[in-house]
């Protein structure tokens, strides 16, 4: 379910967001969704869905907004490396 939200901005801010109201709304929506993604509140798949774009376009947008495309904690990274080492020992990777 979608819900409309009305936000007021000073003209100066709107001029920086885009040439048209539609462009400004798109940029505000992108910013909000990418901030949720940055904070790990939504997945990349959900972000793509909410913005109506494919994953490649999302990655481009993430780069523009400095949102890491690969963001693991040190514990998660250790687990991934451990799993890869285990696969390698079993001959799955050379």
**Integer tally of domains:** 1
Structural class: mainly alpha
Oligomeric state of the chains present here: single chain
Overall body shape: elongated
Mean pLDDT: 88
Can you describe what's shown?
The protein has helices spanning 11-17, 21-38, 44-51, 55-64, 74-89. The protein is mainly alpha-helical and 94 residues long. It has one domain. The mean pLDDT is 88.
Question: What would a concise description of this structure say?
Answer:
It contains five helices and no strands.
What layout of secondary structure does this protein have?
Elements: H1 11-17, H2 21-38, H3 44-51, H4 55-64, H5 74-89
Helix pairs in contact: 1-2, 2-3
Question: Which descriptors would you attach to this protein?
Answer:
5 helices, 94 residues, mainly alpha, 0% strand
């Amino acid at each position: 379910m979608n819900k409309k939200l009305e936000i007021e901005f000073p003209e100066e801010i709107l001029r920086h967001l885009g040439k048209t109201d539609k462009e400004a709304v798109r940029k505000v929506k992108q910013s909000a969704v990418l901030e949720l993604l940055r904070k790990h509140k939504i997945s990349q798949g959900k972000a793509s869905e909410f913005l109506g774009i494919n994953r490649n376009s999302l990655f481009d947008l993430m780069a523009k907004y400095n949102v890491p495309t690969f963001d693991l904690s040190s514990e998660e990274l250790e687990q991934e490396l451990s799993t890869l080492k285990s696969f390698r020992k079993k001959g799955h990777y050379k």
